[in-house]
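Invent a record, attention on tokens:
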Amino acid sequence: MVTFMNHKQALNNTIFKVIGNLADDASLECYVIGGFVRDYFLGRKSPKDIDIVVVGSGIELARKVARELKGKPKISIFKNFGTAMIKHNELELEFVGARKESYHHDSRKPMVEDGTLEDDQKRRDFTINALALSLNAATFGDLLDPFDGLGDLERKLIRTPLDPGITYSDDPLRMMRAIRFATQLKFNIELKSLQAISQNKDRLKIVSKERIVDELHKILMADIPSIGLALLNQTGLLPMILPELTALQGIEEVEGQRHKDNFWHTLEVIDNIAKTTENLWLRWAALLHDIGKAPTKRFDKKIGWTFHAHEFVGSKMVYKLFKRLKMPLNDKMKFVQKMVLLSSRPQVLAEDFATDSAVRRLIFDAGDHIDELMTLCEADITTKNPKKQKKYLANFKKVRQKIVEVEERDRIRNFQPPISGEEIMETFDLKPSKEIGIIKEAIKEAILEGEIPNEYKAAYQYMLKKGTEIGLKHKNNE
């Protein structure tokens, strides 16, 4: 299906007229294609990156455009890919010559040759991304839609221009992209296409971890991440990416006692947290908060199913997972580890009476991330019982209030000992030794337990007392 409807209103930015006029001067066909056109028809905010396809040399047209625009913007040329990029105002314009592609079985990098617009549209991943608007003056704004992408937008359908088995085998990253678009746009994937993803899932092995994670991040940052995670699971891709997550799937029953399916529980948690935060790494923490439950699951005849120390085990698993996926092993990874490690602590406080001492310890351990930790724990409430849900949320609200009160009074966040190691050495005339650590730890514990306030004078007197207890003599004998 080829549609020639005029959509000049999509091209009201003067940059499109400039590009079209220069293309006419050079006797080149020129079109805007891909995400910009798709999002125009969806009524979404236009992306800043715009793809321009030229039947001829995209690089040569880009050079002409760069010379014509005010301020003579910088042009970046990528000869190996036959593309050129111009950054103008807030836009990123990428020019490419229309091309045909063919693939080797062991690589997703295509062999490229010049082609027509339709050749270029055939190589696109999905029909909704193959929509093109003409920029040439005689046909300015005309929509060229050979695969009924417009119809698929109306049907809310992800479909490939060519046979999906070929599309996904040629470039397996498109399997991740299909699921990502289905998640972001809340579209369905055509059944034939969904089956082709399952059939070609092993092809994902030739895709770099960085590319896979980039798509995974976009799924996690969607309004309802569980759409994509469920599709990844259904097609068999998720066990290849996050086996730690799929290991949580299933319910076991022993002697009439069952545990919940922690995989589907996790998907509910990630959806809950997506309603309250745009923090990608907190969403990762929600995704991984229970991964320690698979290796720690045990059945005890007296108490039933247990997952002893699953938070500790899970936090250790985060490092291996991040390393395998070539994700950053920096403060972002440490943040996720900390959230997983502490993920049950506020729940215990919410269920019991939260003592000042317990709250101080939570603030001490969570530091600046106490608010994120509370957000994670609130998202972890997935009970379908309205009374229980209301009760749990009310309890967490009390814990939050208690955190504010204790923090204002005791200043535990980013705790720094009132007494330094150097002062302990000076007071007791010590060289570096284990006694210094013993006294510092005792002062910290006394503050966290509420035995002394978090103040220098009280800590100094406690230091003297503790030093005497372990047999030290201080200089001034005060």
Observations:
- The CA atoms of residues 464 and 474 lie 7 Å apart.
- Residues 160-241 form a domain with the Hydrophobic Seed Protein fold (CATH 1.10.110.30).
- The chain has 24 helices and 15 strands.
